[in-house]
């Protein structure tokens, strides 16, 4: 579908609908539900019964943060650093939770793990996902391999996509336009467009949700020019997303849910930075195409519930890349398939104790064609079969306990046992809860690390263990909410890339030794009035030298929400990122050189106004208001002062 046609059609629909929409305000009276979390046990659990500090970004909070990406929103959460969210739209993202790296952070969509099995770290690319299709996000930090398997070593991010509402037919459409420029080369032209729509409905038995999103971004080069007088070519980014969900209620006890996604991103990119110059070029192009299909039946019975989450994920990445040595463009393609089937059951043994037991099967294969060698899926595959069990005890006296274990059976390297012990105590006479946990986790070597030309089939999993201790409290008639958690993590069998100068060969190896990370995370919320709310969080992270790259020791987020009226919402936010370490390839010595990146501060603001209550709204935002010139990744462009405007219609 032509993206410009999508943009124009969405805009016309929005304008006409807002003009002729019925001006009668529709006020839905909904009963406020107690806050629950899911990640802690895979089933809904009252938050006060959980032994973890779990952050839930609600649908209302997402509604009041229009125009921001999933990565940008996650980057404001305590303990999380999403590197690359302030760079050009096509820049790769780095996920760092509690000093961990991409492979140690597990991303779920609707409770199902998502991966790129052909990638070095097998991580999911958040650039594929438009925030407009997201209903809510739940983040749980710490080792979580007992319930979720490989990759959940430092935390997991569970993204819940939107689904049908209660009406037989309803929908949504939006159009956003903004600038996209750096601090040193300000150009306030329209260069960032995002538009889409969704249609959904529900009958007695059937529910459905369909959505389309289209994004086009231009305006800046991925590589930063050496000075403002040098102009590099722009590196455009585009994204196209189709999503469909269908649900069928067989009975009051059994439901069948199906989903399908097609996601595509295309962008130009530049070569990596080194001290011999930059690699600005208009010849490098890449695309990623993702196909996801799944089926999730749910069955409730007298004392429990049984769920199967299953999915097939196919991803194809291709690159046209300039080889500066031969001065020719080479073609590379990486293709992967991932199958995930997770069946788990909750059985309520008593009012205070229930048991979660499950069996998870995963299969991954990949093949690639590159100028430097090929790998075939017949030789590049593995599977995992993991039985697991977790017991959840919630006492009426305030003591809660979550204990579990998982046995991982891997076709390439054998078996792995992980477990968790998670006690907490809620002082019911006081608004105070103590939380603690000790959890182990593992990270499997990726297919690339095992079977690529640089692979090592004798690799073993990285092993992690995490201990945490903290508290949650509510003060001043619940007007003040405060939590603080300290953590300590150890990891062994770290998988690194090793270059042997004697043989001039490179491959992946398990690096001997113990690496440690420790830190403190705290969040505080002040409800100053019915209209005014102030949220802040602070993160302190200290890691061993082997882990110390692009991880700020200190990070602060602070945000003030002001509900000016029933229709007008205003927010101003502040972010401080401490100094970090980065590295680059030295073209003169053929060695990697480490450098220090300075700290930076960002101030952002946005306003959202409902023209027609619950029907038509507009927003305007300003990012990096003071036009701070900073470095997120060495040699790469970062965003300066930018503005965005948008309109949304619900019907």
Automatic annotation (TrEMBL):
Q: Where in the cell does this protein reside?
A: Cell outer membrane
Which keywords are on file for this protein?
Cell outer membrane, Membrane, Signal, Transmembrane, Transmembrane beta strand, Transport
Looking at the record, the residues that make up the TonB-dependent receptor plug domain are 48-155
Transmembrane keyword on record: yes
Q: Which InterPro entries match?
A: Beta-barrel_TonB_sf, Plug_dom, Plug_dom_sf, TonB-dep_rcpt-like
Membrane association type: Multi-pass membrane protein
The secretion signal range is 1-21
Provide an example Pfam family for this protein. Answer: Plug
Family membership: Belongs to the TonB-dependent receptor family.
* Main location per the UniProt record: membrane
Naturally occurring in which organism (per UniProt)? Flavobacterium ammoniigenes
**Name of the molecule in the record:** Vitamin B12 transporter BtuB
Q: Which SUPFAM superfamilies match?
A: Porins
